[in-house]
Every structure is written in C-alpha cells, then in structure tokens.
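Bit of a strange request maybe. I'm writing a small parser for structure token strings and I need a real example to test against, not something I typed by hand. Could someone generate the tokens for this chain?
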Amino acid sequence: MASTLFHLYAAVGIVITQVLRGIHVAIILFLTFLVFPSLKRFKNRLLWYDVVLALLSLAVIVYMLVEFDDFIYRAVVPTLWDKIFGIILILLILEASRRSTGLIMPGVVVLFIIYAFIGPWLPPPWTHRGYDVDRLVGTCT
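Reply from user aminoacidic:
Good idea to test on real output. This should exercise your parser:
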C-alpha cells in the first residue's frame, strides 16, 4: 500500500531521480526478502535472517538518503563506508534476484562483474581497461 501511494505521488509530484530510485529499490528489496523464502522448503515461513536482510536493505538506502548531497558528488571516489554499503547493496540485489528468479539471472550478473575486474587480462576483442571496486560501486549505486 505504501509503495503504491509513494509511486502514485512520484507520478504527479516532483521527486529527485536518485531519491526515487533509492526508495523504489528499498521497498522492493524489503518486500522481496519478506515474501520470497531463501529455500523452497521454507515456504510460508519467515525466518530471522529474512528480517535481517530486509532491514539491511532499508539501512543501505537510508545511508544513501542521509548522506545524499555528499554521496552524489563522491560517486567517482567513494569513501570506505560508501564501498561497504555499495558492496552490501550489490550482494542484497544478487540474493533478491536469486530468490525471485532462480540462479540464472544472478549467475549472469556475477559473470559480468568478474568480466569487469578481469578485463585487462583478457585477449582481444574482449579486453578492456578494467574496473576497480571504487568504479564498480560508484557505477552500481
């Protein structure tokens, strides 16, 4: 209900794009960890770590929103906390996609993350200059 109301407001009101995306991701991740079980045998059961992951999803986005003004300008050179929360967000999204779609989607994403890191050592035409953690986190968050 809150998600629907927020998105209806965003359709007619003015919400900064990064804030809109952050709140959307927080709501969807929160609901994903509460609705989709970690394993099929836990269907219709809410386990303690599902609640922890749901709250961690909110914490990551709240960090971004609280630090918003500075956070936006340091995307190219993230702080240690930006990297920690960025890596946590990437892992949460991978786990949420595994729960909701299966192993194929997160597997493809992990392959592309590996490709981003090992690009300089690949043969042509797949070679590229490579990404470090700073750039990956700055791009993904």
